[in-house]
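Figure 3 (text version): structure tokens given as input.
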């Protein structure tokens, strides 16, 4: 069976829609290489800036709004945006996507923070994107908060497709389709929407402890929220130029970890981070898999506050 590299980190699902969700704040924009890039911001002008990164890769960012709101409550000017090529920002990308995405994050930082550094909050793939950006602009980042992150060498991804398959088999009595019959981007007969539907309508529920809650959450998304082609290209580009542990150790940047004990990436992601880096703070939440702001919102909010020095919530360690 051929597993596509992005299958394990897909963060949405296409089911019969109860009503598609979307950004709830007005879009703003900045100019990047003669293109207008949309973003969404909360919080007061002049406040410390936090940028939230997530998504697949190739996935929308409106599902990160609860994180964005929490940061605004803590006194940050917090921003989210779809990355180039997806959702609100279906714009041209020259070459592999990692460098243009890093340039996009830098454009947003300049737009909101001017010459000031920012906090980066990265969820799942977004944690890797935060590291990619920081590798290019370490002087522009004053703190990294990694939420259910993929470890830089991607060891935690190795068993995720099998875990998803086993979970679906238990919950739904379904087996994973033979991936060898599904084409890769660029192959004759590639159908972006069909491939998105096939992959993502079967994946997201496994990222929730309550499988049916995951199905309800998934019903908010449609195929415009996700680009399978960008997902494949993003993972391929990162694999060709991953962020090295030695590079991260050279930064003088506090790094925090918030994850779920039942996450499909656990405990490997945390074990690898702890073995290679000195984490400033580690919080492991109970009762959630991959979306703690949806599954255990009160505990998640307390953890974010604790990591950012505004509140002291309960800390759980493995």
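Below: residues designed for each position.
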């Amino acid at each position: 069976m051929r597993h596509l590299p992005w299958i394990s980190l897909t963060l949405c699902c296409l089911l019969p829609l109860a009503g598609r969700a979307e950004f709830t704040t007005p879009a703003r924009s900045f100019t990047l290489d003669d293109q207008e890039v949309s973003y969404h911001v909360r919080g007061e002008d002049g406040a410390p800036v936090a940028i939230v990164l997530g998504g697949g890769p190739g996935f929308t960012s409106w599902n990160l709004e609860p994180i964005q709101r929490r940061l605004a409550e803590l006194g940050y000017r917090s921003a989210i945006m779809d990355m180039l090529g997806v959702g609100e920002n279906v714009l041209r990308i020259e070459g592999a996507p990692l460098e243009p995405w890093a340039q996009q994050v830098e454009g947003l930082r300049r737009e909101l923070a001017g010459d000031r550094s920012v906090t980066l909050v990265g969820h799942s793939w977004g944690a890797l994107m935060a590291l990619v950006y920081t590798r290019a602009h370490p002087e522009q980042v004053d703190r990294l908060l990694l939420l259910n992150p993929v470890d830089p060498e991607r060891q935690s991804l190795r068993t995720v497709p099998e875990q998803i398959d086993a979970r679906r088999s238990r919950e739904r009595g379904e087996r994973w389709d033979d991936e060898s019959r599904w084409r890769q981007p660029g192959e004759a007969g590639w159908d972006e929407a069909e491939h998105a539907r096939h992959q993502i309508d079967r994946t997201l529920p496994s990222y929730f402890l309550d499988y049916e809650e995951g199905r309800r959450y998934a019903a908010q998304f449609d195929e415009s929220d996700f680009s399978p082609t960008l997902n494949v290209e993003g993972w391929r580009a990162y694999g060709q130029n991953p962020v090295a542990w030695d590079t991260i150790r050279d930064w003088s940047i506090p790094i925090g970890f918030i994850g779920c004990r039942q996450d499909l990436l656990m405990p490997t992601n945390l074990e690898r981070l702890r073995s290679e880096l000195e984490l400033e703070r580690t919080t492991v939440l109970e009762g959630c898999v991959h979306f703690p702001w949806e599954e255990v919102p009160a505990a998640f909010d307390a953890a974010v506050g604790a990591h950012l020095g505004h509140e002291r919530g309960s800390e759980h360690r493995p």
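The radius of gyration is 18 Å.
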